[in-house]
TrEMBL record:
One of its GO terms (cellular component) is synaptic vesicle. Residues 539-725 form the B30.2/SPRY domain. Residues 10-50 form the RING-type domain. This is E3 ubiquitin-protein ligase TRIM9. Its main location: other. PANTHER family: E3 UBIQUITIN-PROTEIN LIGASE TRIM36-RELATED (PTHR24099), E3 UBIQUITIN-PROTEIN LIGASE TRIM9 (PTHR24099:SF13). It is an enzyme of class 2 (transferase). It is found in: Cell projection, Dendrite; Cytoplasm, Cytoskeleton; Cytoplasmic vesicle, Secretory vesicle, Synaptic vesicle. It comes from Vulpes vulpes (Red fox). The gene is TRIM9.
Length: 739
């Protein structure tokens, strides 16, 4: 019952409803609260003025919120009537239950009448504080709203059930709290008195015992009030209008607006709606039961999460402590090496100090002796020993000059700790899936017999090993950039075959595949080396192209099919997508399947049908070019559009270089895309049409055409000589396994 309390409280005052009324939006308000939130509207919005102008027929007219901005529903909480000063801007309030309330623009006039009988200001309107729908009151004011007597009864029963606990009526001293009530005896019993005075045997066994609260409600229930008609206050409701979905009296059927409506007996509709509500409650009860079970599951999850968190934290602390211990052990080992180096350096330096000290003492003694000999005045005696002393002095001096005065050890420690790998590992230390539910899938096997290249496209096929028992949820195909660079993902999915378009011509690509499932990814397959076809690449010349015949000697003619996947829906394909026309009189764009990003490329198209009126356009475009306008209208296409007399170049809707000479049925259009020079040139019937059309073109381009229903265009296949009998097909030698 406590969970129902919010349903029984007014959204304005936050208290239990007092004399609740029902608004047309089905929400409820206290009658006094409804009067408090009334606001006055302009004269032009009144029901009388609307009826006079013939613009309204309803008793309660909802306001046009576009004409009158009544208290904005935005979070600012402010609103105003636009255009008149009688309703100043007033901040909204919030009721205790959080619903926004719109206060009146002016205080209600003082009156001694009850809220139901007090006069309502002329042209008043009320806004529902829950759905914010506004409506203008008619002459009846608040009396025009029906009273919700059912809600009043529910509130009475709820308040009675919340009252103080009932006492036993048979206790002689200090009555105890009653636990049951006998509906037949109309007496409240505690458990001891029930066992003593109302044993469950004999005639008393047939009595119905109910909880005290239910017994009090059944005892105190007052006779049901009969609701009266809002239009005819002296008449009781006797029928139910099916069209208006409201109870009515017999005068409403004879005189009022319900006279022509379908009506049914009030009691029958009461029982029918009770049955419908009960059926709806059954479904809602099932949802509530499921919600309770779900809440129990969530609460159990909270407990389990807390337990798992404690366990995981302990495991994490233990792992980190193990790392710290290992680091401390390594630290001790490194410190031992440093101490060893320290002792070695000290020993070498101390030995050198000892050696130099002895030698210095000997040198000093020799010097003092020689000085004393020099002081002697006996020439013959001096000459007898001078040669020997001179040799000793030179020998001693030479001994000091052989690195004796150079330190045998440096003071620096020739040790440098390389901790960058460890720091990087620490920074990369992260969580992985601790408990694998199943092993990773096996490494896929490339099916070499189905792998091939065609023009600048590559098709790869793979499969799982025959004896693999672990299913794969999908595969990841990776290719490098054609220059030995890093691999990048080009396909992720469940298929076991993939065609990659838009590769560079005359380039070598490395491809590899791996499988994955929920546990992880497999090892990479062997690397497959793919060689795209030579296409139209050649060494560029320094001189400009003047004769198309010379160009055809230098390069092959590119051949492609049109792409239905990226074309406008009005484009019609035939001849294995080599021929296109259009079902619309408007220009529509279609692209070729082959894209070019480097090298020099030339292709031709023939005009199969032309009635001398339309302006078909030929050129190149990005993949995201607009498909419903002429080619060259946007900045994603570079084109030449031509009629039967002249042609123009167009890019980004800019027309340049008008050139005489047009097309007719059977004409051949040539397009030369030189991505080495970044130029685009056009030809008509093997003759260059105008100057170089565009310069500084770079990126990925697709052949493109725009046409309407009066034009049909086909691609011209290359004229390739027959291959010798012993030659190997290009697709068969377009790949090899990297050893």
């Amino acid at each position: 019952m406590e969970e129902m309390e919010e349903e029984l409280k007014c959204p304005v005052c936050g208290s239990f409803y007092r004399e609740p009324i029902i608004l047309p939006c089905s929400h409820n308000l206290c009658q006094a609260c409804a009067r408090n939130i009334l606001v006055q509207t302009p004269e032009s919005e009144s029901p009388q003025s609307r009826r006079a102008s013939g613009s309204g027929v309803s008793d309660y007219d909802y306001l046009d919120l576009d004409k009158m901005s009544l208290y904005s529903e935005a979070d600012s909480g402010y609103g105003s009537y636009g255009g008149f000063a009688s309703a100043p801007t007033t901040p909204c309030q919030k009721s205790p239950n959080g619903v926004r309330v719109f206060p009146p623009a002016m205080p209600p006039p003082a009156t001694h009448l009850s809220p139901a009988l007090a006069p309502v200001p002329r042209n008043s309107c009320i806004t529902c504080p829950q759905c914010h729908r506004s409506l203008i009151l008619d002459d009846r004011g608040l009396r025009g709203f029906p009273k919700n007597r059912v809600l009043e009864g529910v509130i009475d029963r709820y308040q009675q059930s919340k009252a103080a606990a009932l006492k036993c009526q048979l206790c002689e001293k200090a009555p105890k709290e009653a636990t049951v009530m006998c509906e037949q005896c109309d007496v409240f019993y505690c458990d001891p008195c029930r066992l003593r005075c109302h044993p469950p045997r004999g005639p008393l066994a047939k009595h119905r015992l109910v909880p005290p609260a239910q017994g009090r409600v059944s005892r105190r229930l007052s006779p049901r009030k009969v609701s009266t008609c809002t239009d005819h206050e002296l008449e009781n409701h006797s029928m139910y209008c099916v069209q208006c979905k409201m109870p009515v009296c017999y005068q409403c059927l004879e005189e009022g607006k319900h006279s022509s409506h379908e009506v049914k007996a009030l009691g029958a509709m009461w029982k029918l709606h009770k049955s419908q509500l009960s059926q709806a409650l059954n479904g809602l009860s099932d949802r509530a039961k499921e919600a309770k079970e779900f809440l129990v599951q969530l609460r159990n999850m909270v407990q389990q999460i807390q337990e798992n968190s404690v366990e995981f934290e302990a495991c994490l602390v233990a792992q980190c402590d193990a790392l710290i211990d290992a680091l401390n052990r390594r630290k001790a080992q490194l410190l031992a090496r440093v101490n060893k180096e320290h002792e070695h350096k000290l020993k070498v330096v101390r030995d050198q100090i000892s050696h130099c000290t002895v030698k210095l003492r000997q040198t000093t003694g020799l010097m003092e002796y020689c000085l004393e000999v020099i002081k002697e005045n006996d020439p013959s005696g001096f000459l007898q020993i001078s040669d020997a002393l001179i040799r000793r002095v030179h020998l001693t001096e030479d001994q000091w000059g052989k690195g004796t005065l150079t330190p045998r050890m440096t003071t620096d420690f020739d040790l440098s700790l390389d901790n960058s790998p460890l720091l990087q590992s620490i920074h990369q230390l992260d969580f992985v899936q601790m408990k694998a539910s199943s092993p990773v899938p096996a490494t896929p096997i490339l099916q070499l017999e189905e792998c091939c290249t065609h023009n600048n496209s590559a098709t790869l096929s793979w499969k799982q090993p025959p004896l693999s028992t672990v299913p794969a949820e999908g595969y990841i195909l990776e290719l490098d950039d054609g220059n030995g660079g890093q691999f990048r993902e080009v396909y992720v999915g469940k298929e076991t075959m993939c065609t990659v378009d838009g590769l560079h011509f005359n380039s070598t690509y490395n491809a590899r595949i791996k499988a994955f499932n929920k546990t992880g990814v497999s090892q990479y397959s062997k690397t497959l080396v793919l060689q795209t076809s030579e296409g139209c690449s050649f060494e560029p010349q320094s001189a400009p192209y003047t004769q198309l015949v010379d160009i055809k000697k230098l390069l092959a003619v590119a051949w492609f099919a049109f792409d239905p996947g990226s074309a406008h829906s009005d484009i019609i394909f035939s001849n294995d997508n080599l021929t296109v026309t259009c079902s619309s009189y408007d220009d529509r764009v279609v692209l070729g399947k082959t894209g070019f990003s480097k090298g020099v490329h030339y292709w031709e198209l023939t005009v199969d049908r032309y009635d001398n009126h339309p302006d078909p356009a030929f050129g190149v475009a990005r993949i995201d070019v607009m498909k419903d306008v002429m080619l060259g209208k946007d900045d994603k296409a570079w084109a030449m559009y031509v009629d039967n007399n002249r042609s123009w170049f167009m890019h980004n809707n800019s027309h340049t270089n008008r050139t005489e000479g047009g097309i007719a049925k059977g004409a051949t259009i040539g397009v030369l895309l030189d991505l080495n020079r970044k130029t685009l040139t056009f030809f008509i019937n093997d003759e260059q049409q105008g100057p170089i059309a565009f310069e500084n073109v770079e990126g990925l381009f697709f052949p493109a055409v725009s046409l309407n229903r009066n034009v049909q265009v086909s691609t011209v296949p290359p004229r390739v000589p027959a291959a010798p009998a012993h030659s190997t097909p290009k697709a068969a030698r377009g790949w090899y396994i990297n050893p």
